[in-house]
Structure formats: C-alpha cells, structure tokens
Hints:
About 0% of the residues lie in helices and about 45% in strands. It is mainly beta.
Amino acid sequence: xxxxxxxxxxxxxxxxxxxxxxxxxxxxxxxxxxxxxxxxxxxxxxxxxxxxxxxxxxxxxxxxxxxxxxxxxxxxxxxxxxxxxxxxxxxxxxxxxxxxxxxxxxxxxxxxxxxxxxxxxxxxxxxxxxxxxxxxxxxxxxxxxxxxxxxxxxxxxxxxxxxxxxxxxxxxxxxxxxxxxxxxxxxxxxxxxxxxxxxxxxxxxxxxxxxxxxxxxxxxxxxxxxxxxxxxxxxxxxxxxxxxxxxxxxxxxxxxxxxxxxxxxxxxxxxxxxxxxxxxxxxxxxxxxxxxxxxxxxxxxxxxxxxxxxxxxxxxxxxxxxxxxxxxxxxxxxx
Length: 335
C-alpha cells in the first residue's frame, strides 16, 4: 500500500503534496549499506507478541514531515510499540507477519524498503530502491517476491513501473512498465499482481486499474464494469481482489465503497459491493480485510480507524483509535 499525500507537487494528481525533509529511525540501525544491498541483522529480536497486529502510519497533520508507525493489538487497538520515522511512502506485510516500510533516508539520499519482524521496532533487512522513489508495495504469497510501485520509473512519459525483487532479496529488480502512475497493489493467492493508480502526470486523478499476470512480461490494463472515482487501497480478501474507490462524485452518492472483483482478459467484473457506513469510509481509504471484518480509515474524524462487517458492510462495530493524519495501514499476522 502506498502512503497517500506524496506526489501532488510532482504530478498535479489528487494524491496531495510532496513531503520534503527526512529523519531516521530512533534506536540502533544497521550500518551504511552498499547502494543495492540488503542486510539481515540479529540486533533486532522478535518481541513476545503472538497475536495479530495492526500497523498504522500517521502524523500530527497533513504537512508534518515525520511519521510515526503505531503497532496495535487487534481487534482492541491496544498500543504495543511505536516506530519513529521521517518520510514514509508505503507499507505492506507478508504471510509470515513481516512488515515492509518504504522509507527515505536523507543521509544516503535514497529510498529503501525496510523489513520489520512481527512486532519489531528495528529493521532486520533493507533493500535500496535504485531509482526515483517507491510508493505502495506488496508481497507475493506464492513466492515471497517484493513489488514496489515506482511512479516515475516507466520508459514512456507519464508512465510508472513496478519493481519486483525475487524472494525479497537484494539484487537487480525485474522492472515492468505500467501505462499510468501506480499507487496501490496486492497479489492474489496465485501470484497475480493487481494495481490501481491514476493518470497523474496528466492531472487526471480518476482510478485506473491493471494486472500483472504471474509469468507475464507486461502489465495489462483492466477496465472495470462499474463506475469509479478516486483510487484507494487494493487488497486480496481470500476470494476476490478488493478495490476501494471514493471521492465526491455524484454517481457514488457520497458513499465510498469497496468493489470485490474478478479480472480476466482485460475486463474486471464486480461481483460484490461493500459500503461501510455510520461512519462511511474516507474518500480514498486505506483498508485491510481481517477475517469477516474490514479495518479502514473513516470520514467521521481526522485519523479515525474503525472496523466494519465484511463483506456485508453496514454500520461499524468498533473504533480502533484516532491518529491525527493517517498515511497508511497494514496487518501483521501472528503465529
């Protein structure tokens, strides 16, 4: 998942502002790395946390440069730990409970994908993103590959790229052009990657969608059979790809929603619509499917995260917490 609020100054896209300035993690860090290296470190021990955890990236306000990542228990929202960062632009998790954060390191003037063990507050691995910058990310459950959305990495003007590191290990990534600016991504169980974004370089904020079929060399554009507005999160819910869309469009009637869909041959068929309410989702929501619930940002209060039934939708069942300006969330599964 990418952190919205990153590249409006570059592209004019609805996604908000480029946040300048950077910081570093508080506490021990691995030493300086070669430009394309990843490290595994034994310095960060896995804390005694067995249950599922919610990671929430947030800041006091929209223009604040520094980001906190709160680690919370699920479903109650008890705070377990906090990670302090500078500029953070994406986050995702894998089936083993590891969490990847996309972070800018000002001392090295580069973006890195940094891996945290379940409940850990220090990175145990780090991969340098070789060009431009990274936004959302996703981990392939079938292979462990790490995909990072690169909004400026395409070979054509206005295009982006998807950079994939095999097994989430160091080395040169496989690069796949995508004909729009990618924002969010998720793999299905078979290793197919689904991506949303917008034609941000052309100041067109409306949702575009694509699929990188496992083993394919190119991203195919997917046309959905329902109307959309602004792009939100993308998740695999165990059966279908779930895509959030919202914003102030008359045909959505002010009701941001999650489409559950199947994609084939360049067409995306929506088989179900989830409309959380009382309160509604935020217009461009970060969300994560959690069993028979969905955890997401809301329009009720700045930075509020709630839980609703999924896929039924309807009124919320719990408030997890309020966090100022939320920049992303992901769930780390316990074992």
